[in-house]
Amino acid sequence: MRLEGWRLCPNRAARTAMNERAHKLIDRIYAAALEPDLWQEVVAGVSEVFGGAPTTMGFAVADDPAPTGPRFAVGIDPALRPNFMEHMFRDVPWSRRYHYAYMDHWGSMAEVLGHVDLASTELYTEWLKPQGFAADWPVGHSLSNGRGEPVGGFGVFRREGAPHFQASQYAEADLLVPHLRRAIEVYQTLHGTRRVHLALAEAIDRLPTGLLLLDRKRRVVVQSKGAARIIAAEDGFGIDRSGPSAADARENATLQKLIADAMEAQAGQEMRSAGFVAVSRPSGARAYAVMVTPLLAAPGHGAGSDAVVALFVADPSARVVATPEVLTELYQLTHSEAELVRLLAGGLSLEEAAVKRGVSLNTARSHLKHAFAKTDTSRQGELVRLIISGVGQIREG
């Protein structure tokens, strides 16, 4: 890798040290694109470029140009770290266009704010001065994404009495600019995708049905919390060395054939290749309902990308019934009506629910009649199906 800017160094030894430091820091930058905690080492490296000067770095979130996302710092009072950008955007006439002025180089913010008396601002009196920093505008560099939009930035501060930053230090920092841009693009792509995956995993974990994703060796590569609960029960369905299995030999043979058929499915035949099996339970509880279906999405890279088969496992006996508050909000039931409906959806008869509620059978019938009208149902079984199949079954966390 050829590094420009070394000519500004005063001697060969300094140029060699600059080269080595720059290469090492560039390696850290690309490593940080994969491991976000390593941005702290990048900040430390930038601080070293500027003679150990206090340095901060932050990422923006959404369309906010201020670094309100993750932050990293060296030599900054922890209690004051969150306040720098607050002062910058409140105390000085900062403009979004100033971000663009520092995307291609490192420079003193005096280039755009030199007309402001820094010593008279709260940025200086409440943030710079208490930390022993000079009344100088910091050195800045704006981080940008692949579309050239600002997504955060660096700030480097001179301590009171320390020498002013040299042209060779700016030149060395400028060597990092293209690498920071590429690393930020990788970082945002990778961790944006990771956040989506985490959000999907959280949503799936809230569903009452368990989910298992298998690779071609029948190994489980994704397991939802619902599936984990079913497996932990050790009640007729589990995972052994060959993958998902049923305790009953006949049911297990059916399950294994369904998995094999799903693995052989062709594009466009996903639903035709899906199969179902009831897995009985030694405890005597109602059988698990298992659906096996192929996944024919194009293979990707990363966790779960090798998944080729999905198993959905439902436990009819583990019915999650909505709370009265949810039923009231969904169907405008009164609290008494919602309590009765919840008990019916939990498997009680109308007579049992009336006893449980401590009301007469006639009162329970009246509540049920009102619930029918509000839910547009006419039979108890229809009402129960509506409740147990609705969004009220989704767990809150």
Cα distance spanning the termini: 50 Å
Given this structure, which CATH class of the largest domain is correct? Alpha Beta
Give the topology string: H per helix, E per strand: HHEEHHEHHEEHHEEHEEHEEEHHHHH
Broad structural category? alpha+beta
- The tally of domains stands at 3
Q: Kindly identify the CATH topology of the largest domain.
A: Beta-Lactamase
Spatial order of the strands forming the largest sheet: 2-1-5-4-3
Q: Spans of 5+ residues with little confidence (pLDDT < 50)? A: 1-7, 61-67, 298-304
Q: Note the overall shape.
A: elongated
Count the beta strands. Answer: 12
Strand content: 5-15%
- Mean model confidence by pLDDT: 84
Describe the protein's architecture and organization.
The radius of gyration is 31 Å and the shape is elongated. The chain is 43% helix and 15% strand. The strands form three sheets. Strands 2-1-5-4-3 form a five-stranded antiparallel sheet. The protein starts with 11 loop residues before the first helix and ends in an 8-residue tail after the last helix. The protein is an alpha+beta fold and 397 residues long.
Q: What's the short version?
A:
This protein has 397 residues and is of the alpha+beta class. It has helices spanning 12-34, 39-49, 84-91, 97-101, 110-113, 122-128, 167-174, 177-205, 225-232, 249-263, 324-331, 335-345, 350-357, 361-375, 380-389, and strands spanning 55-59, 71-74, 107-108, 139-144, 150-156, 210-214, 220-223, 237-240, 243-246, 275-279, 288-294, 309-314.
